[in-house]
Amino acid sequence: ESIYSVKIELENGNDFIELDKENKVLILTKNIDPVNMMFSGIGVKIANKTNVKNKTNLIIKPNKGSIKDGYYILNISFRGNKGRLYTNQFFIRIKE
After folding, report:
1. Which residues of 5-32 are buried (b: 16+ CB within 10 A; e: fewer)?
2. CA-to-CA separations, 18 to 36, 60, 64, 89, in angstroms, rounded
3. Maximum CA extent, the chain
4. 27, 43, 53, 82: which sits with the fewest CB atoms below 10 Å from its CB?
5. Residue 51: predicted pLDDT
6. Alpha carbons 13 and 49: distance in angstroms, whole number
7. Residue in 27, 24, 20 with CA at minimum distance from that of residue 42
8. pLDDT tens-digit profile of 44-94?
9. What is the pTM of this model?
10. DSSP β-ladder status, 85-95 and 16-18
11. Do 18 and 38 meet the contact criterion of CB atoms below 8 Å apart?
């Protein structure tokens, strides 16, 4: 088992986000310093700068250009303890 983990929870409780709407997404992490995290994707922004350990709130507002085969792609990268870069791609289902 990895010492790091990144998990996504959609605030709407569903397994999809909605097109052209602001969707709240919670990123849950283990053993990752938030300072070392980067988020990328079309229409992604960090919702609030909280100091809650292991939790980051994002707002994702997908548009047609951000959809690939019915999914929105969110990239999350972080630096581990020894400076190694880890990158994860999450495919989130889109409801149009």
Report:
1. ebeeebeeeeebbebeeebebebebeeb
2. 28, 9, 11, 19
3. 41
4. 82
5. 67
6. 22
7. 20
8. 999 876 667 889 999 999 999 999 999 999 999 999 888 899 999 999 999
9. 0.88
10. parallel
11. no
Q: Is the Cβ–Cβ distance between 66 and 52 less than 8 Å? A: no
The identity of residue 84, as a single letter, is R
The residue type of 38 is M
CA dihedral 17, 11, 21, 48 (to 10 degrees): -130
Cα distance between residue 61 and residue 66, in whole Å: 9
Q: Which residue has the tokens 């581990």?
A: 80
